[in-house]
From TrEMBL:
This is Peptide hydrolase. Its cofactor is Zn(2+). The chain crosses the membrane at residues 28-46, 366-387, 399-421, 433-454, 466-485, 491-518, 622-642, 662-682, 689-709. May be involved in vacuolar sorting and osmoregulation. It is a multi-pass membrane protein. It comes from Ambrosiozyma monospora. The keyword Iron does not apply. Its EC number is 3.4.-.-. It is found in: Vacuole membrane. Residues 719-1040 form the Vacuolar membrane protease C-terminal domain.
Length: 1046
C-alpha cells in the first residue's frame, strides 16, 4: 500500500521539534514564567550591582566617605551654628587639597559677599510677588585653572546646608563629599591639568530659596563657566539618577560615565508640573548655563527627616554619585573641541546601568513619523500578498473583535477593582506599591486569558496570535502618533517607550506575515471525481440527500483515487443487480464475498467543504513561527514596561502623602503599568497552561491580601508630618528681661495627610495630662490638615529666665516714622526706620499690608501692587547717622519724573526725584538699598553673625501705587476725598515680621539648669509611633511673629 499510514507516529526528531518549537502550552508557559521572572529580578540585580564598591577601595572614596561622616555629624541648617562648623570643615579640606597643585585656587564668601536680590518664589511657579532678599553668603568656591582659558569652563555644585530636622547625609552631604572627591582626584600627583577650567561651588542655604546658587552669579568666577553639573539628594541612599538636562548636547558628555543611571521620564515630570520641588538647577539655567541635575530620589518619606543619616546610606551609593560626577567632569574637562551645541531637548535612558542612550526630541519625532508611515505600508503589502496566495485561513468578520473587547473589558474590571474594592485608599501605595502592582497585573492577565481562551474554544481561528499582534500594532501605532503630536507641541521627552514597543510589535507582526508569504499555497479547488475503494461493508444507509452511503464502521479504506488490484472492480452491481452508478454526490458499488461486501466510493467535494477542511488542517498546524514572535515582542516589552514603571512608582509612591491629587495620579500610573505589563502577552494568552493560570490566581489573592491588610505606613515607609512651633507676639506687650508671667502660650502646628494626626497626638503624655485641646483644620483641596495645640515653651539661648522671655527673643523697636498725619498731600512719601531685635537668629521675613493691599493676595493678583518702593538694610557697623536722607523725595510740581520721562499720575501733576537707582545699590557706609517702583511685596533677611543682635531696616512707601511704565492708580480714593484720605489710619503701613530658629538637638543652660531647646519637638520624637517621621514646616522649627503698624 502506498502513502503513510494514518496512525503511524512521527519519528523522534519530528517529535522533538514539535514539542520544543511548536505553539504548545508547555513551551509557552515556560517562556512566560522566564520573562516575568527576568523582568522583576533584572531590575533588582542591576540596582544592587550599581551600588557595589570596587575592590580594592579607591582612595578618593575612602576620603570622601570620611568627609560625609564628618559633614553628617549633626543637624546643620543655615539657621544653626553647626552650619558654620560644616563651612569651616569644607574650607579647611579644600585649602589643604589646593596646596597640592599651583593652578588650584580657593575663594571664601564668608563676610565678603553681601547683597540684595529680587527673586520670584522658586517653589511656587504661580507666584508673581516681588520678593527681595538680603543675603550674606558663605559659599566656598574652588577654581581648577584649565590649560586653555579660551575654552568654556565647567561648574560642579552642591549645597552643604541641611534642613533643621535632618543630618543632611543624602541631601546634600553626598553631593558635597562627591565634590571633595573630584577635587581630591584633580589634586592628586600624576593627574594632568584639565584643558577647561573647573569651578566647584560648595554653596549654602539652598533649602529655603536656592540662595547659594543665586550668590554664585555675584562672584567673578561665574563668568568662567558655561555648563554645570548639579548634585542633589531628594531621598536617602540608592542610586543617583540624571533626571534633568537643559539640552541634548550636554547629555553627550554623560556617555562616558561608568555606571549610567538616567531617564527623561523624570524630566517630563518637571516639564508637566507634576513635580514641583526645585533644585539649584533652576537658578543656573535661569542665568543662561547649560547642564544636568543628578540626584538621589527615594524614599521620599525619609527625605528631610532624622533618618537622612549615615545609617540610611552606604559607600556604594556615595561611589555611584561620585564616580559618575567625576567621569562626566573629566569628559568635559579634557575635551578641547567646542561644546556640543545641540540645544534641543533630549530624550535619554540607560540600559541596565551599562549603556546610556540619548537622542534629541526633534530627531525622535522624525523617526516616529517615518515608522508610522513606512510600517503600515509594508504591513498592508504583506497582507495583500497573503490574501492573494490564500495562506491565511481567516475571515474578515471572524476573530478580529475578541482582542479589543478583551482588553477593554479586562481594563474596566481591573480599574473598578482597584478604585472601589482593592486599592480603596491610595495611601497604601506609600508603604507598598509592589503588592498591588503584581496583584492587579495578575488579575488583568487572568481576565484576558478567560475571555481570549473562551472565544478561541468557542470559535477557533487560524493564527489567533497574529490577529492579536496586528491589533496591538495598531494600538501602539495610534499611541506613537499621539506622542509625535506631544513631541512637536510640548517637547515631551517621555515617549521613547512607545517608539520601542511599536517597533517590537511591528517586527513581530511583519515576521508572522512573512511566514505566511513564504508558506506553500494550498491546492486550488478542483471538481474532479475522487474514488475510494472500501471493503468489508455489511450494510448501507442513506445520507441526508437520499444518496446511498455505506456505513464505514466496518470498512477499511484501501486507497484514495485508485483501485488497489484487478480483483476489486471499479464499479460493481448493486445488491439488486441493477449495476447503476452515481452521477453526482457519493455513490457506492457493492460486491458480495464470503467476508462481506466491497464498496467503491466516488466523492465530489463541495468548495465550502474543501475550504473548511483547509481551515481545520491549518488549526492543527504547529505554527513554528510563534516562538520568534514571542521572543521579539514579549520579553523586551515586559522588561521595558516593568523597569520604567517601577522607576516611576519608586519616585511617586510616597508623594501620595503630600497631596491627594498626587495620590490619584499615582494610582492611575499603577493601574496603567499593571495593565500594560500583561498587554504584550495577550496575543499568546489563549494558549496558556492551566498551571500558570493557577499561578496567576495565587499571585492575585496572595498579594491583594497582603496589600489590603497591611497598614499604609511602616517603619521602613513612615508617614511624614511637618512641625512648627509658633509664638505669636502680634499685639501683645510681652515683657523683656522681667519676671512677668508669660502672656503668650506657644502653639505647635503639625501638617500632614488628614485623618492621622489627632490619633497620634492623643497618645502624647503632655497632651494627656494637660487636657490640651487639639484643633485640626482640614484642607479639602489637598486632602491634608493642620493640627494645632498649646505646647511646652522653647529655650533658645543660655542665660537667666529673665533673659529668656519671648520679648527678649524678638521685638520691634521703631526708631523713626514720618507717618505723623502732617503730610501736605497724598503724594508725599512716608518713611520709617526700625530695629528687629532678634537673638541667635539668622533669618527673618517681612510682609506688608494696608487697607487695600496685603502680601499674600498680591502673589496671585497682578493688579494689587505693593505701596512699598524702597527697602534699606543698614550696616550694623556703620555710624548711626549714616544713610541717604531723604532717599525718596516727592513734591508738588508740573509732572511726575520717572527715569527721565514725564508721567501724569492720578490726575495730579507732581515731581518725583530719586536719589537711589532702581534695583540694588550701596553707599559708602555699607548700607544696602533696593528700589522697585512696581512695589516690594516681601523681604527676607539673612545674616551670618549670630551675635549680631538686630537688623536695622528702613522702609519707604507711597499712599498710592505706580510702576516704572504705568501712570499708576490710587487705592480707590477720589480727589474730593482728600481730607478723609489724609487720615492717618488710611496711610498706615502694617509690617508683619517672622523670625526663625532652626536648632533643636542641643541644650542651653538657664539659671544653671540644662534645658532642651525645643522640648515640644523632643516629646513628639520620643512618643510618636515608629511609623511616623518628622520634618520642618517652616524655615525653622521655632517661629516668633510680631506686627507693627507704621
Amino acid at each position: 500500500m502506498t502513502g503513510e499510514e494514518p496512525n503511524k507516529k512521527p519519528g523522534p526528531v519530528r517529535q522533538f521539534i514539535r514539542s520544543t518549537f511548536g505553539f504548545r502550552k508547555t513551551t509557552l508557559t515556560f517562556l512566560v514564567v522566564l520573562t516575568y521572572l527576568l523582568a522583576t529580578l533584572l531590575s533588582f540585580y542591576f540596582e544592587h550591582k550599581a551600588t557595589t564598591t570596587p575592590s580594592p577601595e579607591p582612595a578618593i572614596l575612602t576620603n570622601s566617605w570620611f568627609d560625609l561622616q564628618s559633614i553628617s555629624k549633626e543637624f546643620h541648617p543655615y539657621t544653626s551654628p553647626a552650619n558654620d562648623r560644616v563651612h569651616d570643615y569644607i574650607l579647611e579640606r579644600v585649602q589643604k587639597l589646593a596646596k597640592n597643585k599651583s593652578y588650584i585656587e580657593v575663594s571664601d564668601d564668608y563676610d565678603s559677599l553681601k547683597t540684595i536680590i529680587n527673586q520670584q518664589e522658586v517653589f511656587d511657579p504661580t507666584s508673581i510677588a516681588n520678593r527681595i532678599i538680603y543675603f550674606e553668603s558663605s559659599n566656598v568656591l574652588v577654581k581648577i585653572e584649565g590649560k586653555n582659558p579660551s575654552l568654556e569652563g565647567i561648574l560642579v555644585s552642591a549645597h552643604f546646608d541641611s534642613v533643621p530636622t535632618a543630618y543632611g547625609t543624602t541631601d546634600d552631604g553626598m553631593g558635597i563629599a562627591s565634590m571633595l572627591g573630584i577635587l581630591d582626584h584633580f589634586s592628586t600627583k600624576g593627574v594632568e591639568q584639565p584643558d577647561r577650567t573647573i569651578v566647584l561651588n560648595f554653596n549654602n542655604d539652598e533649602e529655603f530659596g536656592l540662595l547659594g546658587a543665586e550668590m554664585f552669579f555675584e562672584h567673578e568666577w561665574s563668568s568662567l563657566v558655561k555648563v554645570f553639573i548639579n548634585l542633589e539628594g531628594t531621598g536617602a541612599g540608592g542610586r543617583a539618577i540624571l533626571f534633568r538636562s537643559t539640552d541634548n548636547g550636554v547629555l553627550s558628555y554623560y556617555k562616558n560615565v561608568e555606571r549610567p543611571f538616567a531617564n527623561s521620564l523624570f524630566q517630563q515630570g518637571f516639564q508637566s508640573g507634576l513635580i514641583r520641588s526645585e533644585t539649584d538647577y533652576k537658578i543656573y539655567t535661569r542665568n543662561g548655563l547649560r547642564g544636568v541635575d543628578i540626584a538621589f530620589f527615594k524614599p521620599r518619606s525619609l527625605y528631610h527627616t532624622k533618618r537622612d543619616a549615615i545609617t540610611g546610606t552606604s559607600k556604594g551609593s556615595l561611589w555611584h554619585m561620585e564616580k559618575n560626577a567625576l567621569d562626566m567632569t573629566v569628559s568635559f574637562a579634557y575635551d578641547t573641541a567646542p561644546l556640543n551645541n545641540d540645544n534641543s531637548k533630549g530624550v535619554y535612558f540607560d540600559i541596565f546601568g551599562y549603556f546610556f542612550i540619548n537622542i534629541s526630541v526633534d530627531t525622535l519625532s522624525v523617526i516616529n513619523l517615518l515608522i508610522v508611515i513606512i510600517v503600515p505600508i509594508i504591513t498592508l503589502f504583506f497582507l495583500l500578498i497573503v490574501y492573494k496566495r490564500g495562506t491565511w485561513f481567516v475571515d474578515v468578520g471572524r476573530g478580529w473583535l475578541r482582542f479589543p473587547i478583551s482588553v477593554l473589558l479586562a481594563w474596566s474590571i481591573t480599574s473598578f477593582v482597584a478604585k472601589y474594592i482593592y486599592v480603596h485608599d491610595p495611601l497604601i501605595l506609600s508603604n507598598d506599591y509592589i503588592s498591588p502592582l503584581l496583584a492587579l497585573s495578575a488579575l488583568n492577565i487572568l481576565l484576558n486569558y478567560g475571555i481570549l481562551n473562551f472565544t478561541s474554544w468557542l470559535r477557533p481561528v487560524h493564527d489567533q496570535k497574529l490577529i492579536g499582534i496586528l491589533e496591538l500594532n495598531v494600538l501602539t501605532w495610534l499611541l506613537t502618533i499621539w506622542m509625535i503630536v506631544q513631541q512637536k507641541t510640548t517637547y515631551n521627552v517621555a515617549g521613547i517607550s512607545f517608539t520601542i514597543i511599536y517597533l517590537l510589535t511591528s517586527l513581530a507582526s511583519l515576521f508572522g506575515l512573512l511566514g505566511l508569504v513564504f508558506k506553500s499555497s494550498p491546492p486550488k479547488y478542483s471538481k474532479q471525481l475522487n474514488t475510494r475503494v472500501l471493503y468489508g461493508a455489511t450494510d448501507s444507509i442513506d445520507d441526508e440527500n437520499g444518496e446511498t452511503v455505506t456505513s464505514e464502521s466496518d470498512l477499511v479504506e484501501v486507497e484514495e483515487g485508485t483501485v488497489d488490484s484487478e480483483n476489486h472492480p471499479l464499479l460493481g452491481g448493486s445488491r439488486d443487480g441493477s449495476g447503476s452508478g452515481a452521477s453526482n454526490g457519493t455513490t457506492g458499488a457493492q460486491a458480495d464475498g464470503t467476508n462481506g461486501s466491497t464498496v467503491i466510493v466516488v466523492d465530489r467535494e463541495s468548495e465550502a467543504s474543501y475550504q473548511n477542511r483547509l481551515r481545520e488542517a491549518a488549526l492543527k498546524s504547529f505554527s513554528y513561527d510563534w516562538s520568534l514572535q514571542f521572543l521579539i515582542l514579549v520579553p523586551i516589552s515586559v522588561i521595558l514596561i516593568y523597569s520604567q514603571g517601577e522607576l516611576l512608582l519608586q519616585a511617586m509612591n510616597q508623594t501620595v502623602q503630600e497631596n491627594k491629587s498626587l495620590g490619584q495620579v499615582t494610582l492611575h500610573m499603577l493601574l496603567g503599568i499593571a495593565i500594560w505589563l500583561g498587554v504584550p502577552l495577550l496575543p499568546f494568552a489563549h494558549k496558556l497552561n492551566a498551571l500558570i493560570v493557577v499561578f496567576f490566581i495565587i499571585v492575585f489573592f496572595v498579594f491583594s491580601s497582603i496589600s489590603y491588610l497591611e497598614a499604609p505606613f511602616s517603619y521602613q515607609n513612615p508617614l511624614k508630618l511637618r512641625f512648627l512651633q509658633t509664638i505669636d507676639l502680634s499685639g501683645v506687650n510681652e515683657p523683656i528681661h522681667t519676671n512677668s508671667t508669660f502672656s503668650v502660650v506657644p502653639k505647635v502646628s503639625l501638617y500632614g495627610r488628614a485623618g492621622y494626626i489627632e490619633s497620634i497626638l492623643e497618645d502624647i503624655p503632655s497632651l494627656k495630662t494637660g487636657h490640651t485641646k487639639i484643633e485640626c483644620v482640614p484642607n479639602n483641596a489637598t486632602g491634608s490638615e493642620t493640627c494645632s495645640f498649646d505646647s511646652q515653651r522653647p529655650w533658645l539661648y543660655d542665660g537667666s529666665k529673665k533673659e529668656n522671655t519671648f520679648g527678649s527673643y524678638f521685638n520691634i523697636e521703631v526708631l523713626s516714622n514720618t507717618n505723623n498725619g502732617k503730610q501736605s498731600d497724598k503724594y508725599s512719601p512716608l518713611e520709617a526706620v526700625f530695629n528687629l531685635n532678634v537673638a541667635n537668629s539668622r533669618v527673618c521675613t517681612l510682609s506688608f499690608n494696608t487697607t487695600k493691599y496685603n502680601t499674600e493676595d498680591s502673589a496671585h493678583d497682578e493688579k494689587m501692587l505693593s505701596p512699598v518702593k524702597l527697602i534699606t538694610v543698614y550696616n550694623p557697623d556703620a555710624p548711626p547717622s549714616s544713610g541717604i536722607k531723604p532717599v525718596l523725595q516727592i513734591g508738588s510740581g508740573d509732572s511726575v519724573f520717572i527715569g527721565g520721562e514725564d508721567t501724569m499720575l492720578a490726575g495730579k501733576n507732581v515731581h518725583v526725584d530719586f536719589n537711589v537707582p532702581t534695583g540694588h545699590s550701596t553707599d559708602e557706609f555699607g548700607n544696602h538699598y533696593f528700589k522697585l517702583m512696581k512695589g516690594i511685596d516681601s523681604v527676607q533677611l539673612h545674616k551670618l553673625n549670630f551675635t549680631q543682635s538686630n537688623f536695622k531696616i528702613g522702609v519707604e512707601w507711597l499712599p498710592f501705587s505706580f510702576d516704572d511704565d504705568d501712570d499708576g492708580y490710587g487705592y480707590g480714593y477720589q480727589d474730593s476725598d482728600d481730607e478723609k484720605w489724609l487720615n492717618k489710619n488710611k496711610m498706615n503701613l502694617g509690617v508683619s515680621v517672622k523670625c526663625f530658629w532652626g536648632e533643636y538637638d542641643n541644650y542651653v543652660i538657664v539659671d544653671g539648669e540644662k534645658k532642651r531647646m525645643v522640648p515640644a519637638f523632643d516629646e513628639l520624637l520620643n512618643y510618636s509611633p515608629d511609623y511616623i517621621s518628622y520634618s520642618n514646616l517652616g524655615v525653622g522649627l521655632v517661629e516668633i511673629d510680631e506686627y507693627v503698624e507704621l
